[in-house]
Amino acid sequence: MSLRMALLTLLAGAPRSGYDIGQEFDGVLKFVWHAKPTQVYPELKRLAADRLIREQDEGSRGRRPYEITDEGMRVLRTWLLASDTDHSQRNETVLRSFALWVVPPQEAVAYLREEREYHRARLRGMRALKNGLNLRLAPDRAALLGVEAGIRRLEAMVSWADWAIETVSTWPTGMAGTGRPASGGTDRRGGNPGIRPR
Amino acid sequence: MSLRMALLTLLAGAPRSGYDIGQEFDGVLKFVWHAKPTQVYPELKRLAADRLIREQDEGSRGRRPYEITDEGMRVLRTWLLASDTDHSQRNETVLRSFALWVVPPQEAVAYLREEREYHRARLRGMRALKNGLNLRLAPDRAALLGVEAGIRRLEAMVSWADWAIETVSTWPTGMAGTGRPASGGTDRRGGNPGIRPR
DNA sequence: TGTCGCATGTAAACCGTTACATGATTTT
DNA sequence: AAAATCATGTAACGGTTTACATGCGACA
């Protein structure tokens, strides 16, 4: 459902073609929502069939820009104000960190350094994007909200990586592989806080 | 692919049943990776068929705990160290913020306040989880990395929401709905920085 | 004239959610 | 005895990715 809303959000700001939208998904939106062109084009057709957007005149090189309709604006507002936000998250960087105890600390540190570099580079990109906004325009004022969230989340990841590298460096080394409590027992009961099962 | 690795990560720490894993996906892992029970059970069967995990003796109430095999550990380590991390993100809270200019500022502020409360509540939960870890165990030391990332990201979201509420309060009010540059034109060319198309 | 970037799409495979279905054990 | 929680699953649907396919226009 949210891909539709992402497309309506972009088209509410200005008319765009599928290709333009693909660029956004590789730019600002990259840290917020992602979709590939093969998903975007059919969805635009569906939105047009539902009269939430309308195809404009064809441009050069077979360009097909769409604009939002009044009904599309109504649907977008309703989604914003009268539906629950889906807070489910997926972050592979952090997922991997849960598994880092199975490799030697030095390799874990190497992994964390790579991740830190990735997030630093993204942070630079986001800051550049922020400077390109024209805050006299309402859509850009809202985009600033999104970009600022991206910046703060990336800063959090970079500072986390710094901290994680230091933390992992203090881990006891050696035999991480099989150094877990004997896995033969069937049921480990009793006051078990933390992330261990029951 | 990453669901498999999430399951292997959990089973590397200790034997668990599908139900146990479901609890993790509702707990620590919620901010990092999410999967529903209906996805977990079949995937466990597939992992067992591929000999990356092994079914232990059946427990009470039809409980079926699995343990990781040596081959499973090998696959987990290879994934960690020899494959690229998928950095694609999806965050509906921030996606919605890109669209907030289409509603009156006071409604935008109400939305942001709700989001702030949600993230504050989650942050409290994460901090409690952090205190429940037993740092003498290697898997919990790695879990601390993940939990700390969750905490820092949630803190970033809460402080972002604070800032966003103040920012939106200064937005000019009135006619946000149709206050965008006339949408009739076909192609808006020329030096266009920011998030506008071409 | 060849290559690069613009621009749009289809089909199949894969991943994830929703709706449905069942039964055992513990608590009230 | 009823309700809540534990515990596992299947089938259909919908969303997402991967592989494939095509053609125009600008520039070297």
Low-confidence stretches of chain A: 176-194
Alpha carbon gyration radius of chain A: 23 Å
CATH architecture of the largest domain in chain A: Orthogonal Bundle
The largest sheet of chain A, given as strand count, sense and whether it forms a barrel, is: 3 strands, antiparallel
| CATH hierarchy class name of the largest domain in chain A | Mainly Alpha
What structural class results from the helix and strand content of chain A? mainly alpha
The average pLDDT of chain A is: 89
What is the count of DSSP helices of chain A, taking H or I runs of 4+ residues? 7
Largest interface: A-B, 104 and 105 residues
CATH superfamily of the largest domain in chain A: Winged helix-like DNA-binding domain superfamily/Winged helix DNA-binding domain
Please trace the helix and strand order of chain A, writing H or E for each element. Answer: HEHHEEHHHH
Backbone shape of chain A: elongated
CATH fold category name of the largest domain in chain A = Arc Repressor Mutant, subunit A
Report the helical percentage of chain A.
Answer: 55-70%
Strand order within the widest beta sheet of chain A = 1-3-2
Measured by DSSP, the beta-strand proportion of chain A falls in: under 5%
Pfam family, one (chains A, B): PadR
Domain Transcription regulator PadR N-terminal (chains A, B): 7-77
Protein name (chains A, B): PadR family transcriptional regulator
InterPro entries (chains A, B): Tscrpt_reg_PadR_C, Tscrpt_reg_PadR_N, WH-like_DNA-bd_sf, WH_DNA-bd_sf
